[in-house]
Specification:
Layout: E1 8-11, H1 13-21, H2 28-32, H3 35-41, E2 45-50, H4 53-60, H5 65-75, E3 80-85, H6 98-110, E4 115-118, H7 129-137, E5 141-147, H8 156-168, E6 173-178, H9 185-196, E7 202-206, H10 213-222, E8 227-230, H11 244-250, H12 262-276, H13 290-295, H14 299-311, H15 318-331, H16 341-354, E9 361-363, H17 364-371, H18 383-390, H19 408-415, H20 422-430, H21 432-442, H22 476-479, H23 490-495, E10 498-500
Parallel strand pairs: 1-2, 1-8, 2-3, 3-4, 4-5, 5-6, 6-7, 7-8
Antiparallel strand pairs: 9-10
Helix pairs in contact: 3-12, 6-7, 6-20, 8-9, 9-10, 14-16, 15-16, 19-20, 20-21
The structure holds cobalt (II) ion.
Length: 502
Amino acid sequence: MTRKKPVGITDTSFRDAHQSLMATRMKTDHMLGVAEVMDGIGFHSMEVWGGATFDTCMRFLDEDPWERLRKLRGSIKKTKLQMLLRGQNLLGYRHYADDVVEEFIKRAVANGIDIIRIFDALNDVRNMEKAMEVTSREGAHVQVTISYTLSPVHNLEYFTLVARQLVEMGAHSIAIKDMAGLISPYDAFELVTMLKQVGVPVQLHCHYTSGMASMAYLKAVEAGVDVVDTACAPLALGTSQPPTESIAAALRGTPYEPELDLGLLSQASEYFKEIRKSYYIPPEALGVDTDVLSYQIPGGMISNLASQLAQQKASHLLPEVLKEVPRVREELGFPPLVTPSSQIVGSQAVVNVLLGERYKLVSTEVKNYLRGLYGRPPAPVNKELQKKVLLDEEPVSGRPADLISPQLESAKEEIGELAESIEDLISYVLFPPVAESFFRRRKGLLPPLAEEGKNGFAQSSANETAGCGRKHEVNFEQLYTVDKSLLLNDEDNKKYTAYPVG
Ligand code: CO
Protein backbone atom coordinates (compact mmCIF):
# COMPACT_ATOMS: atom_id res chain seq x y z
CA MET A 1 0.00 0.00 0.00
CA THR A 2 0.92 3.65 -0.04
CA ARG A 3 3.25 5.54 2.25
CA LYS A 4 2.62 5.19 5.99
CA LYS A 5 0.54 7.91 7.60
CA PRO A 6 -0.20 6.65 11.11
CA VAL A 7 -3.13 8.44 12.72
CA GLY A 8 -2.38 10.01 16.09
CA ILE A 9 -4.46 9.11 19.13
CA THR A 10 -5.39 11.49 21.92
CA ASP A 11 -6.44 9.47 24.93
CA THR A 12 -9.32 11.02 26.90
CA SER A 13 -9.52 8.49 29.75
CA PHE A 14 -8.44 11.00 32.41
CA ARG A 15 -10.77 13.81 31.29
CA ASP A 16 -13.65 13.53 28.86
CA ALA A 17 -14.24 9.79 29.28
CA HIS A 18 -14.92 9.91 33.01
CA GLN A 19 -16.59 13.31 32.68
CA SER A 20 -19.02 11.76 30.20
CA LEU A 21 -19.66 8.44 31.95
CA MET A 22 -19.21 8.99 35.67
CA ALA A 23 -19.86 12.65 36.31
CA THR A 24 -16.14 13.53 36.30
CA ARG A 25 -15.52 11.66 39.52
CA MET A 26 -12.29 9.75 38.81
CA LYS A 27 -9.88 10.32 41.67
CA THR A 28 -6.29 11.40 41.09
CA ASP A 29 -4.96 8.30 42.87
CA HIS A 30 -6.81 6.07 40.44
CA MET A 31 -5.15 7.94 37.57
CA LEU A 32 -1.71 7.76 39.12
CA GLY A 33 -2.05 4.00 39.46
CA VAL A 34 -1.84 3.66 35.67
CA ALA A 35 -0.24 6.92 34.54
CA GLU A 36 3.20 5.47 33.80
CA VAL A 37 1.72 2.61 31.79
CA MET A 38 -0.34 5.12 29.80
CA ASP A 39 2.77 7.18 29.21
CA GLY A 40 4.41 4.24 27.48
CA ILE A 41 1.57 3.51 25.03
CA GLY A 42 2.62 6.10 22.49
CA PHE A 43 -0.36 8.45 22.41
CA HIS A 44 -0.11 11.68 20.45
CA SER A 45 -1.34 13.31 23.66
CA MET A 46 -3.41 12.63 26.76
CA GLU A 47 -6.29 14.89 27.66
CA VAL A 48 -6.05 15.08 31.44
CA TRP A 49 -7.32 18.45 32.59
CA GLY A 50 -9.91 21.15 32.00
CA GLY A 51 -13.58 20.85 31.13
CA ALA A 52 -15.49 19.95 34.29
CA THR A 53 -12.54 18.31 36.07
CA PHE A 54 -11.36 21.47 37.78
CA ASP A 55 -14.63 22.29 39.50
CA THR A 56 -15.34 18.64 40.38
CA CYS A 57 -11.96 18.14 42.03
CA MET A 58 -12.67 20.78 44.64
CA ARG A 59 -16.43 20.38 44.87
CA PHE A 60 -16.77 16.62 45.20
CA LEU A 61 -13.36 15.03 45.61
CA ASP A 62 -11.71 17.45 48.02
CA GLU A 63 -8.72 17.53 45.71
CA ASP A 64 -6.67 20.43 44.41
CA PRO A 65 -6.90 20.43 40.60
CA TRP A 66 -3.46 22.05 40.31
CA GLU A 67 -1.96 19.37 42.51
CA ARG A 68 -3.55 16.75 40.25
CA LEU A 69 -1.90 18.30 37.21
CA ARG A 70 1.52 18.41 38.87
CA LYS A 71 1.25 14.79 39.99
CA LEU A 72 0.22 13.63 36.52
CA ARG A 73 3.07 15.58 34.98
CA GLY A 74 5.39 13.86 37.44
CA SER A 75 4.32 10.41 36.20
CA ILE A 76 3.69 11.18 32.54
CA LYS A 77 7.06 12.29 31.30
CA LYS A 78 6.99 11.55 27.57
CA THR A 79 3.42 12.10 26.42
CA LYS A 80 2.07 15.57 25.79
CA LEU A 81 -0.59 16.66 28.26
CA GLN A 82 -3.65 18.35 26.87
CA MET A 83 -6.51 20.32 28.39
CA LEU A 84 -9.89 21.67 27.29
CA LEU A 85 -10.55 25.36 27.80
CA ARG A 86 -13.82 27.25 27.23
CA GLY A 87 -12.13 30.31 25.70
CA GLN A 88 -12.87 33.45 27.70
CA ASN A 89 -15.01 31.29 30.04
CA LEU A 90 -11.87 29.31 31.00
CA LEU A 91 -13.33 26.43 33.00
CA GLY A 92 -16.38 28.29 34.26
CA TYR A 93 -19.73 29.33 32.85
CA ARG A 94 -19.24 33.02 32.26
CA HIS A 95 -16.67 35.35 30.80
CA TYR A 96 -13.67 36.34 32.88
CA ALA A 97 -11.50 39.42 32.59
CA ASP A 98 -8.36 39.25 30.48
CA ASP A 99 -6.06 39.35 33.52
CA VAL A 100 -7.63 36.10 34.75
CA VAL A 101 -7.31 34.42 31.34
CA GLU A 102 -3.69 35.50 31.18
CA GLU A 103 -2.71 34.22 34.62
CA PHE A 104 -4.71 31.01 34.32
CA ILE A 105 -2.99 29.96 31.11
CA LYS A 106 0.46 30.93 32.39
CA ARG A 107 -0.02 28.74 35.43
CA ALA A 108 -1.56 25.87 33.46
CA VAL A 109 1.47 25.74 31.17
CA ALA A 110 3.92 26.19 34.06
CA ASN A 111 2.29 23.27 35.89
CA GLY A 112 2.62 20.92 32.94
CA ILE A 113 0.11 21.47 30.12
CA ASP A 114 1.52 21.21 26.57
CA ILE A 115 -1.58 21.56 24.38
CA ILE A 116 -4.59 23.78 25.05
CA ARG A 117 -7.75 23.05 23.12
CA ILE A 118 -9.71 26.28 23.07
CA PHE A 119 -13.37 26.54 22.14
CA ASP A 120 -16.25 28.98 22.33
CA ALA A 121 -19.86 27.85 22.58
CA LEU A 122 -20.87 30.29 19.83
CA ASN A 123 -17.74 29.83 17.68
CA ASP A 124 -17.16 33.56 18.24
CA VAL A 125 -13.44 33.96 17.56
CA ARG A 126 -13.29 37.10 19.71
CA ASN A 127 -13.96 34.91 22.75
CA MET A 128 -10.96 32.77 21.86
CA GLU A 129 -8.37 35.36 20.85
CA LYS A 130 -6.99 36.23 24.28
CA ALA A 131 -6.58 32.59 25.29
CA MET A 132 -4.89 31.85 21.95
CA GLU A 133 -2.48 34.73 22.30
CA VAL A 134 -1.38 33.79 25.84
CA THR A 135 -1.11 30.06 25.05
CA SER A 136 1.16 30.82 22.14
CA ARG A 137 3.27 33.27 24.12
CA GLU A 138 3.74 30.69 26.88
CA GLY A 139 5.11 28.25 24.34
CA ALA A 140 2.22 25.77 24.37
CA HIS A 141 0.37 24.37 21.36
CA VAL A 142 -2.73 26.37 20.40
CA GLN A 143 -5.45 24.02 19.27
CA VAL A 144 -8.59 25.85 18.26
CA THR A 145 -11.94 24.21 18.07
CA ILE A 146 -14.96 24.26 15.91
CA SER A 147 -18.01 23.37 17.94
CA TYR A 148 -19.89 21.14 15.53
CA THR A 149 -23.63 21.40 15.22
CA LEU A 150 -26.31 21.12 12.57
CA SER A 151 -28.40 24.12 11.53
CA PRO A 152 -29.22 26.11 8.40
CA VAL A 153 -26.19 28.34 9.04
CA HIS A 154 -23.74 25.63 10.04
CA ASN A 155 -22.49 24.30 6.74
CA LEU A 156 -19.07 23.41 5.36
CA GLU A 157 -18.44 26.97 4.20
CA TYR A 158 -19.24 28.39 7.64
CA PHE A 159 -16.95 25.96 9.47
CA THR A 160 -14.13 26.51 6.98
CA LEU A 161 -14.47 30.27 7.29
CA VAL A 162 -14.22 30.11 11.08
CA ALA A 163 -11.24 27.74 10.82
CA ARG A 164 -9.42 30.03 8.39
CA GLN A 165 -9.95 33.01 10.66
CA LEU A 166 -8.57 31.09 13.64
CA VAL A 167 -5.53 29.92 11.73
CA GLU A 168 -4.85 33.49 10.62
CA MET A 169 -5.02 34.42 14.31
CA GLY A 170 -2.24 31.94 15.05
CA ALA A 171 -3.82 28.51 15.68
CA HIS A 172 -1.41 25.58 15.39
CA SER A 173 -4.11 22.96 14.75
CA ILE A 174 -7.88 22.64 14.47
CA ALA A 175 -10.16 20.28 16.38
CA ILE A 176 -13.68 19.44 15.33
CA LYS A 177 -15.64 19.12 18.56
CA ASP A 178 -18.68 16.96 18.03
CA MET A 179 -19.97 17.05 21.59
CA ALA A 180 -23.32 15.45 20.78
CA GLY A 181 -22.04 12.76 18.44
CA LEU A 182 -24.04 14.28 15.59
CA ILE A 183 -21.53 14.07 12.78
CA SER A 184 -22.27 11.38 10.23
CA PRO A 185 -19.39 9.46 8.62
CA TYR A 186 -19.89 11.14 5.24
CA ASP A 187 -20.18 14.62 6.73
CA ALA A 188 -17.00 13.92 8.69
CA PHE A 189 -15.26 12.98 5.43
CA GLU A 190 -16.34 16.21 3.74
CA LEU A 191 -15.59 18.45 6.69
CA VAL A 192 -12.12 17.00 7.26
CA THR A 193 -11.38 17.28 3.54
CA MET A 194 -12.34 20.98 3.60
CA LEU A 195 -10.49 21.75 6.82
CA LYS A 196 -7.32 20.01 5.65
CA GLN A 197 -7.10 22.70 2.98
CA VAL A 198 -6.73 25.36 5.66
CA GLY A 199 -3.17 24.11 6.13
CA VAL A 200 -2.78 22.97 9.75
CA PRO A 201 -3.28 19.52 11.34
CA VAL A 202 -6.91 18.50 11.92
CA GLN A 203 -8.16 16.48 14.88
CA LEU A 204 -11.60 14.93 15.36
CA HIS A 205 -13.33 14.66 18.73
CA CYS A 206 -16.63 12.76 18.81
CA HIS A 207 -18.88 11.29 21.43
CA TYR A 208 -20.32 7.86 20.81
CA THR A 209 -23.86 8.93 21.81
CA SER A 210 -25.57 8.37 18.46
CA GLY A 211 -23.56 5.24 17.67
CA MET A 212 -21.85 6.83 14.64
CA ALA A 213 -18.53 7.98 16.12
CA SER A 214 -16.32 5.05 15.10
CA MET A 215 -17.70 5.19 11.57
CA ALA A 216 -17.10 8.94 11.48
CA TYR A 217 -13.50 8.36 12.60
CA LEU A 218 -12.92 5.83 9.85
CA LYS A 219 -14.16 8.19 7.14
CA ALA A 220 -12.21 11.07 8.72
CA VAL A 221 -9.06 8.94 8.61
CA GLU A 222 -9.66 8.31 4.91
CA ALA A 223 -10.02 12.07 4.43
CA GLY A 224 -6.63 12.62 6.07
CA VAL A 225 -7.47 13.53 9.66
CA ASP A 226 -4.25 13.73 11.70
CA VAL A 227 -5.46 12.79 15.17
CA VAL A 228 -8.64 11.29 16.68
CA ASP A 229 -9.77 11.21 20.32
CA THR A 230 -10.45 7.85 21.93
CA ALA A 231 -10.65 6.31 25.39
CA CYS A 232 -9.44 2.98 26.80
CA ALA A 233 -12.20 0.42 26.14
CA PRO A 234 -13.64 0.21 29.68
CA LEU A 235 -14.13 3.99 29.65
CA ALA A 236 -15.36 4.23 26.05
CA LEU A 237 -18.70 4.14 24.20
CA GLY A 238 -22.04 5.53 25.34
CA THR A 239 -21.69 9.25 25.95
CA SER A 240 -17.88 8.87 25.94
CA GLN A 241 -15.42 8.45 23.03
CA PRO A 242 -14.89 5.43 20.74
CA PRO A 243 -12.56 2.75 22.16
CA THR A 244 -8.86 3.02 21.29
CA GLU A 245 -8.55 -0.74 20.89
CA SER A 246 -11.27 -0.95 18.23
CA ILE A 247 -9.93 1.98 16.23
CA ALA A 248 -6.42 0.51 16.35
CA ALA A 249 -7.74 -2.91 15.28
CA ALA A 250 -9.83 -1.44 12.47
CA LEU A 251 -6.78 0.31 11.03
CA ARG A 252 -4.37 -2.62 11.43
CA GLY A 253 -2.37 -3.32 8.29
CA THR A 254 -3.34 -0.02 6.67
CA PRO A 255 -1.06 2.99 6.19
CA TYR A 256 -3.10 4.70 8.93
CA GLU A 257 -2.40 2.14 11.67
CA PRO A 258 -1.66 4.06 14.89
CA GLU A 259 1.75 3.39 16.41
CA LEU A 260 0.71 2.17 19.84
CA ASP A 261 2.12 -0.40 22.23
CA LEU A 262 -0.88 -2.72 22.30
CA GLY A 263 0.50 -4.74 25.20
CA LEU A 264 0.62 -1.70 27.45
CA LEU A 265 -2.76 -0.57 26.13
CA SER A 266 -4.36 -3.83 27.22
CA GLN A 267 -2.62 -3.54 30.58
CA ALA A 268 -4.18 -0.09 31.03
CA SER A 269 -7.59 -1.40 30.03
CA GLU A 270 -7.36 -4.25 32.55
CA TYR A 271 -6.67 -1.63 35.18
CA PHE A 272 -9.61 0.57 34.17
CA LYS A 273 -11.92 -2.44 34.18
CA GLU A 274 -11.24 -2.79 37.89
CA ILE A 275 -11.29 0.93 38.67
CA ARG A 276 -14.61 1.38 36.91
CA LYS A 277 -16.29 -0.74 39.57
CA SER A 278 -15.77 1.95 42.19
CA TYR A 279 -17.88 4.48 40.32
CA TYR A 280 -21.53 4.82 39.47
CA ILE A 281 -22.26 4.92 35.75
CA PRO A 282 -25.91 5.69 35.03
CA PRO A 283 -27.45 3.26 32.54
CA GLU A 284 -28.46 6.11 30.23
CA ALA A 285 -24.79 7.06 29.75
CA LEU A 286 -24.21 3.70 28.08
CA GLY A 287 -25.54 2.28 24.84
CA VAL A 288 -26.82 4.29 21.91
CA ASP A 289 -29.14 7.21 22.51
CA THR A 290 -31.61 7.29 19.66
CA ASP A 291 -33.02 10.62 20.87
CA VAL A 292 -29.86 12.27 19.61
CA LEU A 293 -30.62 10.99 16.15
CA SER A 294 -34.20 12.26 16.24
CA TYR A 295 -33.79 15.55 18.13
CA GLN A 296 -30.15 16.46 17.56
CA ILE A 297 -29.98 17.37 21.22
CA PRO A 298 -26.90 16.12 23.10
CA GLY A 299 -27.58 13.13 25.34
CA GLY A 300 -26.34 14.90 28.47
CA MET A 301 -28.69 17.75 27.80
CA ILE A 302 -31.72 15.46 27.45
CA SER A 303 -30.97 13.87 30.81
CA ASN A 304 -30.60 17.37 32.31
CA LEU A 305 -33.98 18.37 30.90
CA ALA A 306 -35.52 15.16 32.17
CA SER A 307 -34.19 15.74 35.67
CA GLN A 308 -35.27 19.39 35.66
CA LEU A 309 -38.78 18.30 34.71
CA ALA A 310 -38.77 15.55 37.33
CA GLN A 311 -37.90 18.12 39.99
CA GLN A 312 -40.91 20.16 38.86
CA LYS A 313 -43.03 16.98 38.89
CA ALA A 314 -43.66 17.38 35.18
CA SER A 315 -41.82 14.52 33.50
CA HIS A 316 -44.74 13.99 31.14
CA LEU A 317 -43.85 17.29 29.46
CA LEU A 318 -40.51 16.02 28.14
CA PRO A 319 -41.75 15.42 24.57
CA GLU A 320 -43.02 19.01 24.43
CA VAL A 321 -39.76 20.34 25.78
CA LEU A 322 -37.81 18.37 23.18
CA LYS A 323 -39.89 20.13 20.52
CA GLU A 324 -39.42 23.50 22.20
CA VAL A 325 -35.61 23.29 22.35
CA PRO A 326 -35.09 23.70 18.56
CA ARG A 327 -37.51 26.66 18.52
CA VAL A 328 -35.68 28.47 21.31
CA ARG A 329 -32.38 27.63 19.66
CA GLU A 330 -33.53 29.13 16.37
CA GLU A 331 -34.78 32.29 18.10
CA LEU A 332 -31.38 32.63 19.77
CA GLY A 333 -29.54 32.38 16.44
CA PHE A 334 -28.72 28.64 16.37
CA PRO A 335 -26.03 28.39 19.07
CA PRO A 336 -24.29 25.00 19.15
CA LEU A 337 -25.63 23.14 22.17
CA VAL A 338 -22.58 22.99 24.41
CA THR A 339 -21.82 24.53 27.82
CA PRO A 340 -23.03 27.13 28.57
CA SER A 341 -25.45 27.57 25.64
CA SER A 342 -26.99 24.13 26.18
CA GLN A 343 -28.03 25.15 29.71
CA ILE A 344 -29.29 28.53 28.53
CA VAL A 345 -31.44 27.11 25.73
CA GLY A 346 -32.55 24.05 27.69
CA SER A 347 -33.72 25.86 30.81
CA GLN A 348 -35.61 28.45 28.77
CA ALA A 349 -37.36 25.69 26.81
CA VAL A 350 -38.40 24.07 30.08
CA VAL A 351 -39.76 27.36 31.40
CA ASN A 352 -41.63 28.08 28.17
CA VAL A 353 -43.38 24.72 28.35
CA LEU A 354 -44.00 24.70 32.10
CA LEU A 355 -45.65 28.09 32.07
CA GLY A 356 -47.72 27.28 29.02
CA GLU A 357 -46.74 30.64 27.53
CA ARG A 358 -43.53 31.24 25.66
CA TYR A 359 -41.09 33.75 27.21
CA LYS A 360 -43.48 34.76 29.96
CA LEU A 361 -40.34 34.59 32.07
CA VAL A 362 -36.81 34.64 30.80
CA SER A 363 -33.72 33.69 32.74
CA THR A 364 -30.92 36.14 33.46
CA GLU A 365 -28.79 34.09 31.11
CA VAL A 366 -31.18 34.50 28.19
CA LYS A 367 -31.38 38.19 28.90
CA ASN A 368 -27.59 38.49 28.94
CA TYR A 369 -27.33 36.36 25.86
CA LEU A 370 -29.70 38.74 24.05
CA ARG A 371 -27.61 41.64 25.33
CA GLY A 372 -24.66 40.14 23.45
CA LEU A 373 -22.73 39.37 26.62
CA TYR A 374 -21.90 35.82 25.55
CA GLY A 375 -20.70 36.91 22.12
CA ARG A 376 -22.08 36.94 18.62
CA PRO A 377 -24.58 34.17 17.87
CA PRO A 378 -24.03 32.22 14.62
CA ALA A 379 -27.18 33.77 13.10
CA PRO A 380 -29.07 36.92 14.12
CA VAL A 381 -31.36 36.46 17.11
CA ASN A 382 -35.11 36.94 16.80
CA LYS A 383 -35.53 40.73 16.85
CA GLU A 384 -39.00 40.67 18.39
CA LEU A 385 -37.85 38.55 21.26
CA GLN A 386 -34.79 40.72 21.76
CA LYS A 387 -36.95 43.83 21.91
CA LYS A 388 -39.43 42.22 24.27
CA VAL A 389 -36.68 41.30 26.70
CA LEU A 390 -34.33 44.27 26.41
CA LEU A 391 -36.98 46.93 25.95
CA ASP A 392 -35.03 50.05 25.02
CA GLU A 393 -31.61 48.75 25.99
CA GLU A 394 -29.12 48.49 23.11
CA PRO A 395 -27.32 45.15 22.82
CA VAL A 396 -23.52 45.29 22.88
CA SER A 397 -21.70 44.50 19.68
CA GLY A 398 -18.05 44.48 20.77
CA ARG A 399 -15.96 41.74 22.36
CA PRO A 400 -17.80 40.92 25.61
CA ALA A 401 -14.63 40.64 27.72
CA ASP A 402 -13.77 44.26 26.90
CA LEU A 403 -16.56 45.21 29.30
CA ILE A 404 -15.07 43.34 32.25
CA SER A 405 -12.55 45.11 34.48
CA PRO A 406 -9.56 43.23 35.90
CA GLN A 407 -10.56 40.73 38.60
CA LEU A 408 -7.41 39.34 40.21
CA GLU A 409 -6.59 42.17 42.59
CA SER A 410 -10.02 42.46 44.15
CA ALA A 411 -10.30 38.68 44.42
CA LYS A 412 -6.98 38.62 46.26
CA GLU A 413 -8.33 41.02 48.84
CA GLU A 414 -11.55 39.08 49.20
CA ILE A 415 -10.02 35.67 49.80
CA GLY A 416 -6.98 36.86 51.77
CA GLU A 417 -4.74 34.27 53.35
CA LEU A 418 -7.00 31.36 52.55
CA ALA A 419 -5.41 31.41 49.10
CA GLU A 420 -1.91 30.08 49.62
CA SER A 421 -0.64 30.46 46.06
CA ILE A 422 -1.41 32.17 42.79
CA GLU A 423 -3.02 28.88 41.69
CA ASP A 424 -5.36 29.07 44.70
CA LEU A 425 -6.25 32.61 43.78
CA ILE A 426 -7.20 31.52 40.26
CA SER A 427 -9.29 28.64 41.64
CA TYR A 428 -11.10 31.20 43.77
CA VAL A 429 -11.78 33.61 40.91
CA LEU A 430 -13.17 30.74 38.83
CA PHE A 431 -15.35 29.11 41.49
CA PRO A 432 -15.62 31.45 44.48
CA PRO A 433 -17.80 29.53 46.94
CA VAL A 434 -16.52 26.11 45.89
CA ALA A 435 -12.87 27.11 46.20
CA GLU A 436 -13.40 28.91 49.48
CA SER A 437 -15.00 25.86 51.09
CA PHE A 438 -12.23 23.70 49.70
CA PHE A 439 -9.57 25.98 51.24
CA ARG A 440 -11.39 25.95 54.57
CA ARG A 441 -11.59 22.16 54.61
CA ARG A 442 -7.91 22.01 53.75
CA LYS A 443 -7.14 24.14 56.78
CA GLY A 444 -9.40 22.09 59.00
CA LEU A 445 -11.80 25.01 59.40
CA LEU A 446 -14.65 22.97 57.93
CA PRO A 447 -15.39 19.24 58.32
CA PRO A 448 -14.31 16.97 55.42
CA LEU A 449 -16.77 16.14 52.65
CA ALA A 450 -19.22 13.32 53.21
CA GLU A 451 -18.45 10.19 51.22
CA GLU A 452 -21.67 10.13 49.22
CA GLY A 453 -21.52 12.28 46.13
CA LYS A 454 -17.88 11.44 45.63
CA ASN A 455 -18.40 8.46 43.41
CA GLY A 456 -20.89 9.63 40.86
CA PHE A 457 -24.31 11.05 40.36
CA ALA A 458 -26.51 11.48 43.35
CA GLN A 459 -29.29 9.06 42.48
CA SER A 460 -32.10 11.29 41.31
CA SER A 461 -35.26 11.24 43.33
CA ALA A 462 -37.71 11.36 40.51
CA ASN A 463 -40.85 10.66 42.49
CA GLU A 464 -43.49 11.53 40.00
CA THR A 465 -47.05 12.49 40.38
CA ALA A 466 -48.48 11.73 37.00
CA GLY A 467 -50.99 13.83 35.17
CA CYS A 468 -50.66 17.01 37.19
CA GLY A 469 -52.34 20.06 35.75
CA ARG A 470 -50.94 22.57 33.32
CA LYS A 471 -50.11 25.30 35.77
CA HIS A 472 -46.67 24.93 37.29
CA GLU A 473 -44.76 26.92 39.76
CA VAL A 474 -41.36 27.45 38.26
CA ASN A 475 -38.57 27.00 40.70
CA PHE A 476 -35.58 28.62 39.04
CA GLU A 477 -33.30 27.56 41.87
CA GLN A 478 -33.85 23.99 40.78
CA LEU A 479 -33.67 24.68 37.08
CA TYR A 480 -29.99 25.43 37.11
CA THR A 481 -27.55 22.67 37.65
CA VAL A 482 -24.70 25.10 38.16
CA ASP A 483 -24.07 27.52 41.00
CA LYS A 484 -25.91 30.75 40.34
CA SER A 485 -22.83 32.62 41.49
CA LEU A 486 -20.99 31.17 38.50
CA LEU A 487 -23.37 32.62 35.99
CA LEU A 488 -22.92 35.82 34.13
CA ASN A 489 -23.73 39.09 35.79
CA ASP A 490 -23.63 38.47 39.50
CA GLU A 491 -25.42 41.71 40.24
CA ASP A 492 -28.60 40.43 38.70
CA ASN A 493 -28.22 37.08 40.37
CA LYS A 494 -28.16 38.61 43.80
CA LYS A 495 -31.71 39.71 43.25
CA TYR A 496 -33.41 37.32 40.87
CA THR A 497 -32.69 34.49 38.59
CA ALA A 498 -35.81 35.17 36.60
CA TYR A 499 -37.10 38.22 34.85
CA PRO A 500 -40.77 38.68 34.25
CA VAL A 501 -41.22 39.87 30.72
CA GLY A 502 -43.82 42.19 29.19
CO1 CO B 1 -16.09 15.97 24.53
